[in-house]
Model the fold of this input.
Amino acid sequence: MYITCLDLEGVLVPEIWIAFAEASGIPELKRTTRDEPDYDKLMRWRLGILKEHRLGLKEIQDTIATIDPLPGAKAFLDELRSFTQVIIISDTFTQFATPLMKKLDWPTIFCNSLEVAPDGEITGFKMRIENSKLTTVKALQSIGYETIASGDSYNDLAMIQASKAGFLFKSTDKIKADHPELPAYETYEELMAAIKKAML
Done:
């Protein structure tokens, strides 16, 4: 029995923070987990920039409302869910992900939550569990599932490496060069074929 575990941003939808950086005119916010392996450090840095510019949840959600899934992502996910269970495991937050899940026909997502003040300021964040991607994959394996995993960033590597089969998808040249042992794909057709082959 298999469960396929996918990252969200960069794999199925554009990077939310990059979109918001462009919408807000704050280029520093383009930094993502492709650039910074320490997610806690990255998020605290982002929250500092938001506070400095007096930007809150509403402004980010306004940008998210304009984001569509990557071309082909929904068809890929629909086909994948027709023959295997799929869980999206993301370091994003419920308040960001919900509108995007609607556009993808409500797949299952495990993510985190933001702490938001009454005035909309994002004051902090609550991670579901430490090392959530790896911990979730190991938990699924502990109840009898084989996992197949795919993602694009540093924070996806542990779940990819711990799975029966794991693939980089639309990743950076640096991550691909640092991990030549991991198959890397650029199209949904390639990734679908690899997942199907892994399940044989």
Q: What stands out?
A: The CA atoms of residues 32 and 86 lie 24 Å apart. The first helix runs from residue 16 to 24. The chain has a mean pLDDT of 95.
